[in-house]
Amino acid sequence: MSRSNRYVVTYNSWIVSDYALALRLLVEHKSRKNEPVDKKLIRRWFQVARWSNRLSLLLPPERPRALSELAFTYAYLNKLKKSLKLVDMSCRKGTAMKSEYELAKSNFAKGLFSKQQGAVDGEVQMALARETIDRIEQSTTSGTSRAQ
Predict the structure, then answer these.
(1) What's the CATH code, domain 6-147?
(2) Looking at beta carbons, which pairs linking 66-71 to residues 24 or more positions away fall under 8 Å?
(3) How far apart, in whole angstroms, are the C-alpha atoms of residue 10 and residue 119?
């Protein structure tokens, strides 16, 4: 009899995705402050993002987020074509799942990577995605304040 169940797997997947996000934020913070970013930190971030992507194959709701995190690692490594391909896949998965929030976050990342590649419409795409994200976050925060 197996000891794992879907709750353990889901929980582990969230932990890995959150860890990849935390590592990305740490790398971005160090880059903004012009501090040297350790190669081991970047390597770990890439490993965790890949691990999150593999785990997301078992959990479809986690797939768009894992693909976006992996896309951010490739963008940091200046592999923008690969990152655009991954974020495109993330957009398709978000659309298929009818997850408006994940789709908006993926569209924001897509706009960011397009802008880095020099595309003109990247800024517009980022603005539209930011409006959608803000609208969704505002509706969820106003909904929780009414419930209290």
Answers:
(1) 1.25.40.10
(2) 66/13, 66/17, 66/20, 67/93, 67/106, 68/105, 68/106, 68/109, 69/17, 69/20, 69/21, 69/24, 71/109, 71/113
(3) 37
The predicted-structure confidence for 89-119, as pLDDT tens digits, reads as follows: 999 999 998 989 889 999 999 999 988 888 8
Question: Is residue 30 a contact partner of residue 36, using CB atoms and an 8 Å limit?
Answer: yes
Structure tokens at 60: 């479809």
Cα(61)–Cα(56) distance, integer angstroms = 8
Record the pTM.
0.81
Query: 97, exposed or middle or buried, with CB in 10 Å at 0-12, 13-18, 19+?
Result: middle
